[in-house]
Amino acid sequence: MRADDPIPAQLNRIEEWRDTFSDGLGVAVLGVAGWGVVFGAPTPISLDDELRGSVAANLAGHTRREMALDGRRHAAVAIVVVDSEVGSDHDDPHGATQEEMAVVPSDTSDLDGRMAGVAGGASFVLCRRAARLNTHSAQWALPGGRIDDGEDALDAALRETHEEIGLELDRSSVLGLLDDYATRSGYVITPVVVWGGHDAVFEPNPDEVLAAYRIGLHQLLRADSPRFVTIPESDRPVVQVPLGGDLIHAPTGAMLVQFRWVALEGRVDERVDHFEQPVFAWG
């Protein structure tokens, strides 16, 4: 841990938040029952200090699982929490053909690969990767990339967020970390939850990002999410997070599920490392 790491300084604030938002059992009580659900239907969540405090307290109460690299490369991604307006994303020009959707291990006849009508209230940033990239082009991803020499996961997540979507944040914006996730392509990914706040402006780097979307956190609370399918190539369940006109798979999908369970709902120590990726993401 770096000498100037803000996390120890934040712990006092997190304990204050926990005192305010906790039920005394170490988890925030304003989870799914308090946010984003009215009569069973997801509704936008306010981006405010209450949300920030509860997310930080839940992450602090979670026993994070780290993975040894064992020859794999280390990467970090950012789950960046920002605001958005309902109706601001009524159209998405970047869809997918049925041929492209055919690699998904599910019936995709009613999906078009577009991400529209998903904004509203507190949101996270989801990127569609540039088609020109050599690996996983046009796939969904959180801002992130490899951890460079001399960096830790926080440094890398913040740097990649700036490089990919033009949003510059510092270490004081970090709310906490989720579990490491090992990919089939030889990476161990550390998810970093970051508070982007109000009025965040994106300037996507066209070399890396085709488009950056604001997805309302309430979309993660849908009753049909997450869902799971089986594939003959693995005995592990393939996780799918339905968003807009597409399905988000691991690793991104797995990390978003843990973000929902732990950070939003306060279900600390829920694990997702056993969730499988679809075969198209193995390379």
Task: Describe the protein in words.
There is one protein chain. The chain has 283 residues and is of the alpha+beta class. The protein has one domain: Alpha-Beta Complex (Nucleoside Triphosphate Pyrophosphohydrolase). It has helices at residues 6-21, 49-61, 98-101, 153-165, 252-264, and strands at residues 37-38, 41-42, 73-82, 123-129, 140-141, 144-146, 174-177, 181-182, 187-197, 209-216, 227-231, 234-243, 246-249. Strands 3, 4, 5, 6, 7, 8, 9 and 10 form an eight-stranded mixed sheet that branches. Strands 11-12-13 form a three-stranded antiparallel sheet, covered by helices on one side. α1 crosses α2 (49-61). The radius of gyration is 18 Å and the shape is globular. The model is unreliable at 6-30 and 133-137 (pLDDT under 50).
Q: Summarize this, please?
A:
The protein has 5 helices and 13 strands.
Which helices and strands, and how do they pair?
Elements: H1 6-21, E1 37-38, E2 41-42, H2 49-61, E3 73-82, H3 98-101, E4 123-129, E5 140-141, E6 144-146, H4 153-165, E7 174-177, E8 181-182, E9 187-197, E10 209-216, E11 227-231, E12 234-243, E13 246-249, H5 252-264
Parallel strand pairs: 3-9
Antiparallel strand pairs: 1-2, 3-4, 3-6, 4-5, 4-10, 7-9, 8-9, 11-12, 12-13
Helix pairs in contact: 1-2
Radius of gyration: 18 Å
Helix content: 10-25%
Q: Give the class-level CATH name.
A: Alpha Beta
SSE series: HEEHEHEEEHEEEEEEEH
> What's the CATH H-level homologous superfamily?
Nucleoside Triphosphate Pyrophosphohydrolase
- Please give the count of helices: 5
What overall form do the CA principal axes indicate? Answer: globular
Domain unit count:
1
- Could you describe the largest sheet, including whether it forms a barrel? 8 strands, mixed
What's the total number of strands?
13
Strand content: 15-25%
Distance between the termini: 32 Å
By secondary-structure content and strand pairing, the structural class works out as alpha+beta
- CATH topology heading: Nucleoside Triphosphate Pyrophosphohydrolase
